[in-house]
């Protein structure tokens, strides 16, 4: 919704704005919003992780150069659009990829290079912690990295005074506060949804587990303090302001909300923090987050448990593979068209092929595909994958079924994980919010997702704004909320009221067809396993 430019300029001049900065895996994005939560300026910085000594990492130099560049780009956007210098902001929030391992000593020095969520080096620790806690501890969680370092006998562990995430690190450097939003903290160590703090029983079990090592710290000594959305998390210090805005124009003293992970900001950006709602992000990878009404009956290795930014328990199904194989096939069709001398509009090509899929048989006519560019832990492929297409001689091999099977394959592992929630835990879900590249072609990915989950799927016009907008909304909530106003109420009434979105209900024939496909897919999983072992 566009506003008159003079009203936006008044918001900027009177600091009725909020700034969100999110560190994604390939892009750092800064989004400034006005008093009505509309994005009014944005900046970004491209960056890439690097593999050093078999560790996926980003250097601290990369972190700071990227932060400063994204902020400067956003401030330049403000200047270009409104002819104003940005000197004050109503509230700021920082967000980043969840999990990983950043540890510091008493001199605030980084002890080992930042180990990101992408590393799969903590299998032994994750398995032992699963057994100890009876709670799923994925390899990417901070506590798995810490315990693996202990099991490895790494010398630095005794010197740790602070363990945090990337978002927690940025927040600490900006404000001096060693705190973290509950959503991001829930990817470091399990959270008790009743206390909205680290699970005390599990904390004590971990301390007892490593007691014989005689470290000078207990676990709570080195973890950030947990805060929920809306709580004050410090202010931008003089030093923080200078590090964020190297031009020196930005004032200190700006309130900063609790730092959050990308899962939490995605929930805020899609208005899915309410119980019985969820969101699914489908692009290179795919994950679904379902806000639970109660705790699960037992631990499942296929399901991560994290929280919303205000502390409600969330079941997360995270799959490594989604559209990469599908995109590769579309690229092959592009190459064919170019070889025939045709000009190719990729948006039109994607749209044409996606819509063609809707003409296919509901169960894909006997075709099968595994989109595993990398391993897929949800289906038991921990190390490697092989993109694979299979058909029987009598299968209905046509373009519609071919495209449909690749769309189904993109969501197959996700469906297997979500079926645990629906069939074994009897979780009820009113709605899923869809966002990401799979949903760009109107109605196609949305209807396939509705069939996979057997739940209505809504795509909002604002879903593309992403996590930087989500953390800006959390900063605005902290600054502007009324006494007793919940995050759910703030988002529904002040941000998303009147927002346009399209909802597709599941088609019964599509649901039945996807179920038949997934049974065929699971029975034939040995084919994919053989491909991994022999190709």
Overview of this protein structure:
With 535 residues, the protein is an alpha+beta fold. The protein has 3 domains: 1-98 and 234-258, ATPase, nucleotide binding domain (Nucleotidyltransferase, domain 5), CATH 3.30.420.40; 99-164 and 189-222, Nucleotidyltransferase, domain 5; 271-535, 2-Layer Sandwich (Nucleotidyltransferase, domain 5), CATH 3.30.420.40. 39% of the residues lie in helices and 19% in strands. A 7-stranded mixed sheet has the order 16-17-15-14-22-23-24, with helices on both faces. Strands 3-2-1-6-13 form a 5-stranded mixed sheet. Strand 19 (374-376) and strand 20 form a beta hairpin. The chain is globular and about 70 Å long. One of its GO terms (biological process) is carbohydrate metabolic process. This is Carbohydrate kinase, FGGY family protein. One of its GO terms (molecular function) is kinase activity. Residues 279-477 form the Carbohydrate kinase FGGY C-terminal domain.
């Amino acid at each position: 919704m566009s506003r008159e430019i003079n009203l936006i300029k008044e918001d900027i001049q009177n600091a009725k704005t909020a700034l969100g900065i999110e560190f994604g895996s390939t892009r750092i994005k800064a989004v400034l919003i006005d008093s009505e939560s509309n994005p009014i300026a944005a900046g970004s910085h491209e960056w890439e992780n690097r593999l050093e000594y078999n560790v996926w990492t980003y250097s601290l130099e990369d972190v700071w150069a990227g932060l400063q560049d994204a902020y400067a780009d956003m401030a330049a956007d403000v200047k270009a659009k409104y002819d104003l210098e940005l000197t004050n902001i109503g509230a700021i929030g920082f967000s980043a990829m969840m999990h990983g391992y950043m540890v510091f000593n008493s001199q605030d020095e980084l002890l080992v290079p930042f180990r990101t969520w992408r590393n799969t080096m903590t299998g032994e620790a994750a398995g032992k912690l699963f057994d100890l806690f009876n709670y799923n501890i994925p390899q990417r969680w901070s506590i798995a990295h810490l315990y693996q370092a202990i099991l490895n006998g790494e010398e630095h562990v005794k010197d740790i005074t602070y363990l945090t995430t990337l978002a927690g690190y940025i927040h600490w450097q900006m404000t001096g506060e060693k705190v973290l939003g509950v959503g991001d903290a829930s990817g470091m160590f399990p959270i008790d949804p009743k206390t909205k703090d680290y699970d005390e029983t599990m904390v004590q079990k971990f301390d007892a587990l490593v007691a014989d090592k005689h470290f000078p710290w207990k676990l709570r000594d080195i973890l950030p303090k947990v805060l929920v959305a809306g709580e004050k998390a410090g202010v931008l210090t003089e030093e923080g302001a200078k590090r964020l805005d190297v031009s020196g124009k930005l004032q200190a003293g700006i309130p900063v909300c609790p730092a959050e992970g990308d899962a939490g900001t995605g929930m805020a950006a899609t208005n899915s923090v309410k119980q019985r709602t969820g969101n699914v992000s489908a692009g290179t990878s795919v994950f679904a987050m379902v806000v639970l009404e109660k705790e699960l009956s037992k631990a499942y290795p296929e399901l991560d448990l994290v929280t919303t930014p205000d502390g409600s328990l969330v079941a997360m199904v995270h799959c490594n593979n989604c559209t990469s194989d599908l995109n590769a096939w579309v690229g092959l069709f592009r190459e064919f068209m170019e070889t025939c001398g045709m000009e190719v509009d990729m948006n039109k090509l994607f749209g044409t092929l996606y819509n063609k899929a809707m003409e296919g048989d509901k169960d894909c006519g006997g075709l099968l595909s595994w989109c595993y560019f990398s391993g897929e832990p949800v289906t038991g492929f921990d190390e490697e994958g092989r993109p694979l297409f299979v058909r029987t001689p009598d299968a209905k091999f046509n373009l519609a079924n071919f495209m449909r099977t690749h769309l189904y394959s993109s969501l197959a592992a996700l469906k297997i994980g979500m079926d645990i929630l629906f069939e074994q835990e009897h979780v009820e879900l009113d709605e899923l919010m869809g966002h990401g590249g799979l949903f760009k072609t109107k109605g196609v990915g949305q209807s396939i997702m509705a069939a996979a989950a057997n739940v209505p799927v809504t795509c909002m016009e604002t879903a593309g704004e992403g996590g930087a907008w989500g953390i800006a909304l959390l900063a605005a909530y902290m600054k502007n909320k009324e006494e007793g106003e919940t995050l759910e109420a703030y988002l529904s009434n002040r941000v998303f009221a009147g927002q346009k979105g399209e909802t597709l209900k599941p088609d019964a024939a599509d649901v039945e067809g996807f179920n038949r496909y997934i049974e065929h897919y699971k029975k034939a999983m040995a084919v994919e396993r053989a491909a991994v072992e022999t190709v």
